[in-house]
Amino acid sequence: xxxxxxxxxxxxxxxxxxxxxxxxxxxxxxxxxxxxxxxxxxxxxxxxxxxxxxxxxxxxxxxxxxxxxxxxxxxxxxxxxxxxxxxxxxxxxxxxxxxxxxxxxxxxxxxxxxxxxxxxxxxxxxxxxxxxxxxxxxxxxxxxxxxxxxxxxxxxxxxxxxxxxxxxxxxxxxxxxxxxxxxxxxxxxxxxxxxxxxxxxxxxxxxxxxxxxxxxxxxxxxxxxxxxxxxxxxxxxxxxxxxxxxxxxxxxxxxxxxxxxxxxxxxxxxxxxxxxxxxxxxxxxxxxxxxxxxxxxxxxxxxxxxxxxxxxxxxxxxxxxxxxxx
Length: 326
Description:
Elements: E1 4-17, E2 20-33, E3 37-41, H1 48-56, E4 64-73, E5 76-77, H2 83-89, E6 94-97, H3 101-104, H4 111-122, H5 127-140, H6 157-169, E7 175-179, H7 187-204, E8 207-212, H8 215-221, E9 224-229, E10 232-238, H9 239-244, H10 249-256, E11 305-309, E12 312-315
């Protein structure tokens, strides 16, 4: 427990829209150990980014609202902090790399100035020292320091993402949240960015949450994995255990949807149906309308998270002994 860096318990985040109340995250429990890289995996709309924004206290209010739950970081209650206190945490102790580097960088400011700004806000350095550190951070991510005076539009997508990484790591944060950092990049640049993040994580000792829907990226980078579905975590395990023994029907469905180099199959096995509308979530287990093992009880109450084996937890009636496995 002394190595527990982030502990999220019973988190619920909602958005008020014209269509009704959207439950983006509900009953979410998540833990991250110091020095660990956790992969947060799920379909688009599963609540991954909202979870990250809740940790950063950046959920737009209105229309968003953190209705209940606790988020403890290094033993401190983040939800109990005032706005000024969170500003000292955000960008300094917890940093975030956003999904689209073009929209997360200011187009009218040089990249060097933007990195300097993050440094001077949180660290007691002179402008000259901050400028020097900004150039050092660019060198660290493989960009020539002479380009500190260039603007975001003068960089490629992969280079802009490197700038985002340099900015996020400029204050040596304890936790780095990377929200699908390779989504808009081609495969070659994806591999370079992932290798860079892995190297910097090892050199700087930063804990990391990697938000993705790509299980291949998880296998490359992450120590452990949390699978999200319709706003809640349905399975957590070490990367090795999850890949070798997926337990939840949804997790198995994800793996069944991926082509394998080791097996010859004529057709993949996609998960039937679509993820539920967040304004009209099904009763009971949220996966039951799509689950091949669903039984009547699955629509009557929510399952309980069970530790099926040490470190491997699953949220399914099968492991409560109430539903036979198909």
